User: Which sequence fits this backbone?
C-alpha cells in the first residue's frame, strides 16, 4: 500500500485516480516583489533551496516542507509566526500551509518586514599578515546548530582596512538568478573604525587624498577625473551577480567585500572576467569555488618622482568535482603602457581556455580596461623564488625531514610547489623571527593552507612567506673537523646550525684549509640543476674571517695600497711593485671566490660564500675574465642537462715574479713581524666538475698570471681536451687563450688527479660532454 501512495503522487489523472500537483516556485515570478524571505532546506545544514539548472523553478513535492526565514526582522503577515522563521508545507498547486497557522497561500503572498539582514562575523583564526577570517551570512533563530547561513567568507586586515580575499561558491544554476534586484547602500558592519568609507569613495575626497600623496592637486586631477571612469570605485570582491536570490545579492553590499578598483577596470575587463566565470558554471553545470582578492603592488609617481603604492586584483576559480582550476590576474592600473616583469606572476595560459573568450567580446590585453592574464592554480599557489619571499633577512626553507636539506624550485621555473596540508621548516639560524606571535626558537613548521598562505605551528600566525622574516640574515657557522687533507690541512664546512634534535647542521660548502700558511686548498659544493632559478639582486656583504687567519686583518691585506707595500717588500722595489699592482683597473689581487655566490639558489646560501676561508687571491682581470666564463659555463651545463653537479675549486703551486735582481720570488700577501709568510698567491687555479649520474667529469685549469707572454711547460699539467667539449663555448664569447684574462685549458679527471692527489675519490669514466 505504501508503494501505491508513492505512485499516486507521480502520475497524472489515470483510471480515476486523483493526481496532486507538486509546488513549483519560479524564481522571477512566484516570490514576493520585495523583502523576500530566505528559502531554506528544513535541514538547515543543506542551506538554500536552488532552482533547477535548466529553468527558474524550484520543485517541492506535496507533503514536503521548506523553511522561510526573515533574519533581522519578522513576517509581514499577521497570521504568521512572530519568530523570524517558519516551516511551510506544500499542499497542492503552488499552495503552502504555514506550520500550526491558518495561513494558506502562495509564497508570493509571504514577505518580511524588511530585507533579510546580514550578520558579519569575525573569528579568532588568523590569515595573511595581521588578518583575521570572517563571514557574511544570515543568522536564523532556530534551534539547529546550523542556524548561521554563510554565503561569503573572507580574510580582513583591520590594521590597514583591507580585505585580502573573499570566497564564495557560484552555483551551477546561476543563470536562473533573480533579476532586477535594485542596488543598495554599502554597509560598514563595524569595520573601518573611525572612517566614513562612504566619504572616502567620493571623487572629491579621492582627489584630495591623491593630492596629499603626490604633492600636487594638478597631478591628482590628472589621475582622478571628475567625469568618466578614471576614479576608484567600490569594487565588489564577490559580485552581486554571483548569487541566485535577491537577499544574497544584497549581502554583497558590505565594505568588507569591496576594494578600490579603477572604474574603467571594474566596469570592463573585470566585469567580463566575472561574466565568463558565471557562464562557465552554467555551461558546464558545475558549482565553482571562487577566491577574489588583491595581490602585489602597483605604483604611481608623485611630483618628486617618488613612487607610491596601488594594488593588483586576482580571482581564483576552482571546480571541486573535476579538480580543475585557474587563477585570473587583472592589473589595476589604467595608466599602464607596457607589461613589465614586475606585473607578471606566472606564465599566461588564457589561450588554453577556449571558454574564456567564447561568449565575450572583451579585449583582455587593453591596459586602460585592466590587462588580464591567467595562471595555473599551482603556479599561483607556489612559492616563487624572486617574488614570494621576504625582501630581506629571509628564513631558510627546509624539508621537514631536515636530512633532505633545502627546498629547491622546479627546474623549468622559479616555483616551489607545496600541496595544501604539507609542511615545511622555516629557520633563522643565529637569530629569531621578526614577527610577534611566532616561536622565539630559531625554527618553526609552517603548513600550506591555500593560495600561498601558511599557518605557523603553535601560533595564531597565518600569512604568506613574504611576510615572514628573520631578525637578521641567517648566520653561517664555519666548523673544522679532525680529518686531515692535503699537506697540513684539515677539513671543514660552511653551513647553518638549526636548533633541532637531529640533522641540525645544513652544510652548503665543505673545504680543505691549511691554517699554517692561511690557504684554502680547495672548496666543494653541489650546483643544483635548478640554478637558473636562483634569487636575483642579492646585495654583496662584507667578508667574514670566521676565526681563521689568526693575527691577520684580511680586509687590510686585500687593500691595493697594502698589496703594493707587500709586493715591494718581496721584490725590493716600490716602483716594480707598482708595475704589478695598479691603483686603477683590474691588475690587483681580488678576493676570488672558490665557490661562487651565483652557484646557489637562495640569498642565505649566496651570502654564505662571503667567508675568507672561501677565498684565494686572484688577479681581478682573470677573476672577471675567463674564470667568470668558466663558472657561468658550468652553471649553464647544469641547467641544460638538468643535472646536479659536484664542483671542487682550488689552486696548484705559488705564483712567482722576478725581484730587482731578476730572481724569482714566491708571492704571499702577508708577512708577520717574525718574517713568516702567509696567504699565498696561486700559480694555477682549478675547477673540477663531476656529474655523478653520468659518471663524467672534467678539470679546468686557469693560469693566474695576466703578465704571461707564452705557455711554458711549467704551466701545463695535462693534455688539453677543451675542444672535445663543444658545450664549453656554446653560450660564451670568452677567449680561453688570452693570457691577460687567464689562459685556460681542460684535463681529464684522472690526468688531473696525477698532479693533485688530494682530490676526493670518485669515478669519472668519461669526459663531461
Assistant:
Amino acid at each position: 500500500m505504501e508503494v501505491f501512495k508513492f505512485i499516486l503522487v507521480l502520475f497524472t489523472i489515470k483510471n480515476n485516480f486523483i493526481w496532486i500537483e507538486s509546488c513549483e516556485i519560479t524564481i522571477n515570478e512566484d516570490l514576493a516583489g520585495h523583502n523576500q524571505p530566505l528559502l531554506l532546506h528544513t535541514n538547515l545544514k543543506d542551506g538554500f533551496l536552488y532552482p533547477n539548472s535548466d529553468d527558474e523553478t524550484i520543485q517541492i513535492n506535496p507533503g514536503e516542507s521548506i523553511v522561510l526565514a526573515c533574519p533581522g526582522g519578522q513576517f509581514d503577515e499577521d497570521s504568521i509566526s512572530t519568530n523570524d522563521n517558519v516551516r511551510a508545507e506544500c499542499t497542492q498547486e503552488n499552495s503552502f500551509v504555514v506550520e500550526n497557522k491558518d495561513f494558506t497561500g502562495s509564497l508570493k503572498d509571504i514577505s518580511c518586514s524588511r530585507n533579510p539582514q546580514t550578520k558579519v562575523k569575525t573569528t579568532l583564526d588568523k590569515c595573511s599578515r595581521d588578518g583575521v577570517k570572517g563571514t557574511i551570512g544570515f543568522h536564523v533563530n532556530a534551534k539547529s546548530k546550523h542556524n548561521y547561513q554563510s554565503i561569503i567568507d573572507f580574510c580582513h586586515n583591520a590594521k590597514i582596512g583591507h580585505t585580502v580575499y573573499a570566497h564564495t561558491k557560484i552555483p551551477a544554476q546561476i543563470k536562473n538568478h533573480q533579476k532586477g534586484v535594485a542596488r543598495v547602500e554599502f554597509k560598514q558592519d563595524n569595520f573601518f573604525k573611525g572612517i566614513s568609507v562612504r566619504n572616502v569613495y567620493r571623487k572629491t575626497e579621492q582627489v584630495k587624498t591623491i593630492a596629499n600623496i603626490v604633492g600636487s592637486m594638478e597631478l591628482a586631477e590628472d589621475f582622478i577625473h571628475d567625469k568618466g571612469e578614471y576614479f576608484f570605485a567600490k569594487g565588489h570582491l564577490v559580485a552581486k551577480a554571483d548569487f541566485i536570490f535577491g537577499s544574497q545579492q544584497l549581502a554583497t553590499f558590505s565594505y568588507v567585500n569591496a576594494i578600490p578598483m579603477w572604474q574603467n577596470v571594474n566596469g570592463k575587463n573585470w566585469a567580463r572576467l566575472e561574466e565568463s566565470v558565471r557562464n562557465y558554471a552554467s555551461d558546464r553545470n558545475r558549482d565553482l569555488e571562487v577566491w577574489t582578492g588583491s595581490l602585489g603592488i602597483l605604483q604611481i609617481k608623485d611630483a618628486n618622482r617618488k613612487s607610491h603604492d596601488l594594488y593588483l586584483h586576482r580571482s581564483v576559480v576552482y571546480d571541486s568535482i573535476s579538480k580543475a582550476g585557474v587563477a585570473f590576474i587583472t592589473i589595476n592600473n589604467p595608466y599602464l603602457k607596457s607589461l613589465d616583469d614586475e606585473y607578471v606572476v606566472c606564465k599566461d595560459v588564457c589561450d588554453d581556455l577556449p571558454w574564456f573568450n567564447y561568449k565575450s567580446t572583451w579585449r583582455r590585453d587593453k591596459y586602460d580596461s585592466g590587462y588580464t592574464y591567467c595562471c595555473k592554480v599551482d603556479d599561483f599557489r607556489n612559492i616563487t623564488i624572486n617574488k614570494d619571499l621576504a625582501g630581506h633577512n629571509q628564513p631558510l626553507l627546509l624539508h621537514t625531514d631536515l636530512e633532505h636539506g633545502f627546498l629547491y624550485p622546479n627546474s623549468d621555473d622559479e616555483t616551489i610547489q607545496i600541496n595544501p596540508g604539507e609542511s615545511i621548516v622555516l629557520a633563522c639560524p643565529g637569530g629569531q623571527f621578526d614577527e610577534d606571535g611566532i616561536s622565539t626558537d630559531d625554527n618553526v613548521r609552517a603548513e600550506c593552507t591555500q593560495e600561498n598562505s601558511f599557518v605557523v605551528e603553535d601560533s595564531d600566525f597565518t600569512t604568506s612567506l613574504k611576510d615572514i622574516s628573520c631578525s637578521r640574515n641567517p648566520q653561517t657557522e664555519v666548523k673544522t673537523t679532525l680529518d686531515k687533507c692535503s699537506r697540513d690541512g684539515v677539513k671543514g664546512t660552511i653551513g647553518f646550525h638549526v636548533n633541532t634534535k637531529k640533522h641540525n647542521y645544513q652544510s652548503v660548502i665543505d673545504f680543505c684549509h691549511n691554517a699554517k700558511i692561511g690557504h684554502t686548498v680547495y672548496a666543494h659544493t653541489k650546483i643544483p640543476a635548478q640554478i637558473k632559478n636562483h634569487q636575483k639582486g642579492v646585495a654583496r656583504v662584507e667578508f667574514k674571517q670566521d676565526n681563521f687567519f689568526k693575527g691577520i686583518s684580511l680586509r687590510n691585506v686585500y687593500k691595493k695600497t697594502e698589496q703594493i707595500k707587500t709586493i715591494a717588500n718581496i721584490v725590493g722595489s716600490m716602483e716594480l711593485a707598482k708595475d704589478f699592482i695598479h691603483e686603477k683597473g683590474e691588475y690587483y689581487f681580488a678576493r676570488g671566490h672558490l665557490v661562487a655566490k651565483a652557484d646557489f639558489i637562495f640569498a642565505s646560501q649566496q651570502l654564505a660564500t662571503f667567508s675568507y676561508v672561501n677565498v684565494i687571491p686572484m688577479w681581478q682581470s682573470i677573476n672577471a675574465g675567463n674564470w667568470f666564463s668558466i663558472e657561468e659555463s658550468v652553471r649553464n651545463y647544469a641547467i641544460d642537462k638538468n643535472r646536479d653537479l659536484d664542483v671542487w675549486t682550488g689552486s696548484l703551486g705559488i705564483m712567482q715574479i722576478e725581484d730587482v735582481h731578476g730572481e724569482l720570488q714566491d708571492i704571499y700577501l702577508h708577512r708577520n713581524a717574525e718574517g713568516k709568510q702567509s696567504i699565498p698567491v696561486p700559480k694555477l687555479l682549478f675547477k673540477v666538475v663531476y656529474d655523478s649520474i653520468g659518471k663524467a667529469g672534467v678539470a679546468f685549469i686557469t693560469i693566474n698570471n695576466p703578465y704571461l707572454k707564452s705557455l711554458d711547460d711549467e704551466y701545463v699539467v695535462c693534455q688539453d681536451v677543451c675542444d672535445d667539449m663543444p658545450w664549453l663555448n656554446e653560450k660564451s664569447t670568452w677567449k680561453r687563450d688570452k693570457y691577460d684574462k687567464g689562459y685556460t685549458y681542460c684535463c681529464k679527471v684522472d690526468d688531473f688527479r696525477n698532479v693533485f692527489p688530494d682530490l676526493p675519490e670518485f669515478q669519472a669514466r668519461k669526459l663531461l660532454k
